[in-house]
Write a structure and sequence with these properties.
alpha/beta; UDP N-Acetylglucosamine Acyltransferase, domain 1; five-stranded parallel β-sheet; 14 strands; globular
């Protein structure tokens, strides 16, 4: 029975699967990043059909896919609009950025607005985040593997460096150095702070040494 249901869902999502092909390698990495959000671990080389169905049912993933398609060509824009009629994206999520690296992941996407000059590889954005302009003009640039916590605000023509972490609820209006963890209002670098993926990796190492 499960196999029959899976086959039916794969058939129902066939148009989305065809749309993914237009998204190219960036969309392929989006899928794998959705399956493995921990940046300290290797991405899976492939996914099962059941895993693919779960990713395709994720509305924020669909919104990212539609944005990628819309940025590629006129045909891609038409395909994105057509798919969006049948397979709804996240309605409370807005993306305006022409250069988005592969591996973008939004776990929830609710009430999230992203207006950026550029977004790097393997970035992660939580819910209720605002990234955009301020009165200085120009949107932010996010480096590779940047992680933005829930309810954070990143504003203005600033740069958030590679591997930086913006804590939940932070308001960022100045450049963030690569690898830094920032928090607070206005956001400041937190000396000695360790992002959660580094902490998880250290914990895994301790567990291996004990076993």
């Amino acid at each position: 029975m499960r196999r029959i249901l899976l086959a039916l869902r794969l058939l129902a999502y066939m148009p989305l699967r065809l749309g993914m092909r237009l998204g190219g390698q960036a969309t392929e990495r989006d899928v794998r990043r959705q399956l493995q959000p921990r940046l300290d671990r290797a991405l899976p080389d492939s996914c099962t059909q059941a895993q693919l169905v779960e990713v395709l049912s994720h509305r924020p993933f669909r919104s990212i896919l539609y944005h990628r398609l819309s940025c590629r060509s006129v045909i891609g824009r038409f395909v994105a609009k057509a798919l969006g009629v049948v397979y709804k994206g996240e309605p409370a999520m807005f993306i305006s950025c022409d250069r988005i690296g592969p591996g973008l992941m939004m776990m929830h996407g609710f009430a999230t607005i992203i207006t950026a000059r550029e977004i790097g590889v393997d970035c992660q954005v939580s819910q209720q985040v605002t990234i955009g302009y301020d009165d200085r003009g120009g949107p932010p640039t996010l480096g590779d593997r940047v992680r933005i916590g829930a309810n954070a605000v990143v504003l203005g023509p600033i740069t958030v460096g590679d591997d930086a972490v913006v804590g939940a609820g932070a308001v960022v209006v100045r450049d963030v150095p690569a690898g830094a963890v920032v928090g607070g209002v206005p956001a400041k670098v937190l000396p000695g702070a360790t992002d959660r993926f580094s902490a998880l990796k250290a914990g895994d190492a301790k567990t291996r040494r004990r076993s």
